[in-house]
Amino acid sequence: MAPTLFRTRTATEPEYTPEPWPEIGETWKPEGVIVSQRFLGLAGAVVLVYTADAGVNGTYYAVACLGCTYRTRSKSQDHYISSEEMGGRIANAHAAQCRALPRDLPTRPDDDAAREIVRRRLHSERRSDYDVTVYLTSFHLDRLALQRSTEWIEEELQRLADEQPEFLTAKPRTYGTGTEFTILRFPKG
């Protein structure tokens, strides 16, 4: 009997079981991150193309090397990576020249460390001359370190807005559902 391309799944078999990464021999599925592509660098470091839940502005991708410090969420200075294909091209270009050795997978931080990652990202986005709307894509570069869901990030933003209204505000979105967060500019003086 010839092998078939399709087979019937049994009732006890899961719909999807992640395959172990051949280059590291284990499965890694960090919370809040959807890994769509993996590339292998010259010395064995893994370069990932990943995304998170689609936000109000659509799905965006980021690229990160698990061997060196390379991370990007944009294909040029002002243009986010808006397609998996573009993310793949960027990751492949990095993998083709990266000589980093593989490192251990990032461990999931405790809640206090994760909160500090969120605070650092918000402070890096703060400006002196205008208020800044917070988009979940702002956290794409931090997703591998955070290893938290979109809901967790939104809850943390709400907590910060409640505790520090002079720094971060929260209000219902004008269009659609959800909450809009705004980082207030540095006070003058």
Summarize the structure.
The chain has helices spanning 84-97, 111-125, 143-146, 150-163, and strands at residues 34-40, 46-51, 61-65, 71-72, 74-76, 79-80, 132-134, 168-172, 179-183. It is α+β, with helices and mostly antiparallel strands. A hairpin with a 6-residue loop joins strand 8 (168-172) and strand 9.
Give the count of helical stretches.
4
Overall pLDDT metric: 84
* Strand order in the largest sheet: 1-2-3-4
Q: Assembly state here?
A: single chain
What is the total tally of β strands? 9
The sequence of SSEs as H and E is EEEEEEHHEHHEE
Largest beta-sheet details: 4 strands, antiparallel
> Into which percent range does the helicity of residues fall?
10-25%
Euclidean distance between termini CA atoms: 81 Å
Envelope shape: globular
Give me the secondary-structure category.
alpha+beta
Poorly predicted parts: 1-11
- What percent strand? 15-25%
Query: Radius of gyration in whole Å, from Cα?
Result: 19 Å
